[in-house]
Specification:
15% strand; 65 residues; single chain; alpha+beta; two-stranded antiparallel ribbon
């Protein structure tokens, strides 16, 4: 999980809320990966179950920019 910036409390509330939501999703994905469970998302109008390998790729892309 990424660390919030030091000035996080100076950011607008909507930005902090989005950061909190993104962190919560990352934490949930990491938990599902550890337990080997799929993580369900909405993609192209359908519910899709991501495998632990797909979740790992997504999290690595998010963290590496």
């Amino acid at each position: 999980m990424r660390q919030p910036p030091k000035n996080v409390m100076e950011l607008p509330l909507d930005v902090r809320a989005l950061m909190a939501l993104q962190a919560a999703v990352e934490n949930a994905m990491e938990e599902h990966m550890r337990e080997g469970r799929p993580f369900y998302i909405w993609r192209d109008g359908k519910t899709v179950g991501l495998t632990p390998e797909e979740m790992k790729e997504i999290l690595e892309r998010r963290r590496n920019g």
